Amino acid sequence: MLASGIGGAAQEPAPTPVAAATDARAPLELPPPQIAIKDFAGRSAFWDGKLSPDGSKFSYLRRKDGNTQFIIADVSTRKLVHAFGTDPSDQFEWYNWVSDDKLLFSVSTAGTFMGEDVRYTRLILVDVTTGVMSPLFGRTNVVEGDNVIHYAEDGSYILVSIQKTIYDYPSVMRHELMPDGKVTTVQQPRDGVWNWTADNNGVVRMGAGWLDGRLKVYYRSDATGELKLVARVKESEKTTDRYWDAVQILGGSDEGYVLSEGETGRVGLRRYNFATREMLETIYEHPEWDIDSVGLKDGQPYAAYYTADRDEVHYFDPAVRKQHAALRKALGDVEVWVPSRAKDGSRMLVYAGNEADPGVLYMYEPAGKILKEMAQYRPTLDFQALASPKPMQYTARDGAVIRGYLTLPRGREAKGLPLIIMPHGGPYGIRDKLTYNDEVQLLANRGYAVLQPNFRGSGGYGEAFFELGTGQIGRMMQDDLDDAMDWAVKEGIADPARVCVVGGSYGGYAAMWAVLRNPERYRCAASWAGVTDLEKQLRYDSQSFSRGGYKRWRDRVRGQGVAEVKTVSPMGHAAKLNRPLLLAHGTKDIVVPFSQYNMFEKATREAPMRPQTLVIKDEGHSFSTSENEQQWYEALTGFLAKHNPPDPAPVTVAAASAP
User: Fold this and answer.
1) Preceding omega of 427 cis (within 30 degrees of 0)
2) What global pTM score does this model have?
3) Tell me: the pLDDT tens digits for 353-377?
4) Between the CA of residue 299 and those of 55, 249, 316, 367, 597, what are the distances in Å?
5) Could you tell me if 28 and 656 are in contact, meaning their C-beta atoms sit under 8 angstroms apart?
6) 307 strand-pairing partners
7) What contacts 12, CB < 8 A, 6 or more positions away?
8) What architecture (CATH level 2) is domain 391-655?
9) 647 neighbors 494 (Cβ within 8 angstroms)
10) For 561, which DSSP code?
11) How far apart are CA 301 and CA 305, in angstroms?
12) Is the alpha carbon torsion for 59, 60, 66, 67 positive or negative?
């Protein structure tokens, strides 16, 4: 049962202030014991849990024998209803409940097109009653086949934006949701249009995209009208036409909802007239943070999601706000999040955890105030021995304010520490935040300070901050990492002779580029699944660097590419590598193909210093088993211990404080 705090007064969560990362007056504690690597790799039994619309079924993903399984269970009996496997060559991307008896999930796979590596995506329909799985599009027919832009309210059909080849703009196809369902094309492609938007009745009403430095927007008022060019905006023009993402166009009307930048520079939720292109009303805008996304219910805004230092939510229904506040109060000093709920609110999944606690997933039934534990996310990990990341900020060389997070090892003086700079993936529209991170906690437990800078182009900080990152991969975005190091050294936290860069995906690229571009700065680098040839990666997947951002950001990067990527690709500089580098990759990576690893490894064979390598067979972009994750952590900690060793752990407070 929940504590008696349920039902208390609602309070909106206040954003965490950007504060100093250290306090010299704080007494030095005893260092915690060294935590076994296997505990950081000891993942929960399942992930990505969701409830069916009626709340009667619980779906989730789990690993079995190295492969992903999709599970459906009955909530009341907790008995398994169906277990589905996917092709081992596929990577599971996402899934959604379409109705109580239908599920849709997306998978991706690597392939080739005219001799080039290409990433293909497609959809699979699951009939919950019979357990029948039906592919909706063939593997080789389309490059991008999982961009669903509309679900019919009764679950009878979907609209999907389809990119047939890497040289085509997307069209829109209607697919009946049944085995061998009828497929029709409802919108032909248009040059420059990457993003199609349908209204809540399933009518394609708008298309937009960047082409040759201009944003083009096409619109029509109803299904019978012709799409007309209503906006053509140059990149340099200051106009509100540049700054919105369509959330919902209301059927039978020219009005709807958009995410757009306001006078404060913050992205908020607004009511908008698509025909006249006028902002009519601000529904919700946070004074400090961009709204990331909006949840809809019956075509109307239900919740606005944003990231302060942690993930936050504003519910528009006062009763739901009150319920959420009561959960936060009852569960104590943790982040509380509702990842899924039944349509009528009778059941919901509740996550409780924070940056120093991996957390627990509960099932909550409000009517009876019943809270049941479903899973612990790191069941063997002693969270009381973990470090507490703190917000920080610094000023980059051009005056831009960069925010980030610093995690200091416990029981050690914050002075002259070995430093790990850990850039996030993405890079556009993604950001680090105060949330639990195995790798950060592992390195802090081993005695390293870990700094996660949200370099320019990161999400959540407004349009102007994103613009600072445009065309700056390997350039000013990399400068921000160098400036993060300089900040930590100036503050006395880091030893300038003991700084390494560690990252995955784009972060792996940034780590490699750090020691190639500025070997005088960095002692070493470690890359998991890093991009080594930016040009080839963009041909493989045109959205490689922008999948996490707003649609308008994705379309812009997709339409314009990344400026002069060849000169800032590690491949072109591999032969001059002269700093220790841990180069690691999985052979079945579909996001950043294994060929990226192979090319770079071969190119470094004549370099002054060859990289230390780690290849994990049959592994993808992220870790599919705890054994594979442990293998990476063991390689990483061993590599750092050799090339950037931490100080010996203090035995007592007195010893730690001794000069």
Assistant:
1) yes
2) 0.86
3) 999 999 999 999 999 999 999 888 8
4) 20, 9, 13, 26, 45
5) yes
6) 311
7) 314, 321
8) 3-Layer(aba) Sandwich (3.40)
9) no
10) -
11) 11
12) positive
* 512/504 Cα distance (integer angstroms): 10
Of residues 111 and 548, which shows the higher confidence score? 111
Angle at 576 between CA 530 and CA 504, to 5 degrees: 10
What does the alpha-carbon distance between residue 507 and residue 571 come to, in Å, rounded to a whole number? 16
Token pair recorded at residue 189 = 């492609």
The answer to whether the CB of 329 falls within 8 A of the CB of 8 is yes
Helix (H) or strand (E) run with residue 444 in it = helix 438-445
CA distance 537 to 313: 35
Task: Indicate the domain borders of the chain.
Answer: 391-655
* CA 207 to chain CA mean position, Å: 25
Tens digits of residue pLDDT in 89-109: 788 889 999 999 999 999 888
| 8 A C-beta contact, residue 97 and residue 108 | no
In 563-658, at which residue ranges do the beta strands (DSSP E only) sit? 581-586, 612-616
Q: Residue 5 pLDDT more than 50?
A: no
CA angle 586, 436, 505 (to 5 degrees): 30
Nearest to 421 by CA among 365, 502, 358: 502
Q: Across the chain, which distance is largest between two alpha carbons, in Å?
A: 80
- Distance (Å) of CA 289 to CA 16, 286, 312, 320, 504: 11, 6, 10, 22, 26
**Residue type for 241, please?**
D
Angle (deg, nearest 10), helices 438-445 and 626-643: 40
